[in-house]
C-alpha cells in the first residue's frame, strides 16, 4: 500500500505533494509498459546478507584451522557449499513485471494488478512509486500483486513506476534492479443528472425533439387550413372536412388539413474554463502546497459538470460543441451521437491549465443561435466577460459555478481577509452576470 502508515498494500495518499497515477481500464486489457531494457539478461549480485554469510563462514574456517577445532569447520562447510551452489546454479528471470488496470475508468479507488515473474526458486522485491504518495515496498512470490490507489481526481494522472529485483529464497543474491513505468493515463469524469435543460429560441435542423416556430412534420398542432398544393393527403382532417365542407355541386367538396409545427434540434456549446484548478483549502491557491489527491479540485468539478451537460444535450437529440478557454487548439465542432459524445468527453478529460493563465483577448466564436454553457469558477473577469459578450450577441447563456465549498476556518486573519476580498469580487461578478440576462447555476458534485 502506498500510504502514510508505511509500506503496506494497497495504497492511500500521502501528505499533500501530488496526484495519484492510475487510470482504470476494463479488466483484461493490459496497460502498455515501457521496460527498462526488455528481456535482457540481468546479472546476479550478492546482497549484504550474502556477504555477511560468506564472512561468517570464512571466520569459522579460519578459527577452526587456527584453533584445531574441526567442529567449527564442519559448521562452516554447509555455508560454503550453499554459497558455491548458489553462485553456479541461480540465474534470475529476465521477464519484467507487467501491469493490468482493474475496474472502471472513474474517480475513486483505482486498482492495478502487477504480474511478477521469477525463476524456479526466486522471489521478487518490489517497490511501487507514485508522485504524491508514500512508496510501497514488498517481497512477493511470483504471481499477481494488486496496488490500490485512492483518488478523487480526473484527467491525465501521473504514472505508476515499479522498481523490481529478483532475489533468492535465502536473500543472499538478487538480480540487478529494473524499472517498469506504466504510461500516464486518463480518468474520465462521471456524468451526473442535470436540472431542466434550457433551449435556445432559434432552433436549427429539420429533425429533433424541440418544437420550432415554422410549420413542418412535427407532433404539435399549428392550425387547420384549407387544402393547398403541397399538402399531403394523410394530413386531411376528415371530421373538419365533413363539418365545414359544402354540398354545392359547382364548388365541390373543400378539404381541410391539420398543419403542424416542425421539430428541430438545438445547438449547445459547452465552454470549460480550465485556467483555474483550485481546491477547497484556500492556502493551496498560491501553489506552495498541493491539494490532497482525495480532494476534488474545481477543475475536477468543472469536468464533471461539462461532461454532464454534454451528455444531457446529446441524449436529448441535440448537437453539442466544446471549447476550452485555455486551449490553444481547435474546438470540437457541433455534432450528435454517442461517438461524438465520446470525442467531447475525451476533450473535456484532457483539458488542463498550461502554466500561468494568459488573459483572454477575445471570446471564442460560437455557432449562430446556439445556447452557451460556461463552466468556470469566475475568480477573474475573463470567463464572466466572455459570458456577458455572448449574452449581448443574443445567445442564451448559462453560467455554471464550480467553485468547491471552501474551508475558511483554518485560515489566519490575514489569509481570511484576502479570501473574503476575492470572494466579494467574485460575488459582484456573478451579480453583474445575472443582471446581463445570464442564468446562474451552482454545480455540486
Automatic annotation (TrEMBL):
Name of a matching Pfam family: DUF58
Residue ranges, compositional bias (Basic and acidic residues): 16-25
Keyword Protease set for record: no
Presence of keyword Membrane: yes
Segments for region (Disordered): 1-40
PANTHER family given in the database record: BLL2464 PROTEIN, POSSIBLE CONSERVED SECRETED PROTEIN
Transmembrane intervals: 49-68
UniProt entry keywords in alphabetical sequence: Membrane, Transmembrane, Transmembrane helix
Protein name: DUF58 domain-containing protein
Species annotation: Miniimonas arenae
Residue intervals of the DUF58 domain: 226-403
InterPro entries: DUF58
Lineage: Bacteria, Bacillati, Actinomycetota, Actinomycetes, Micrococcales
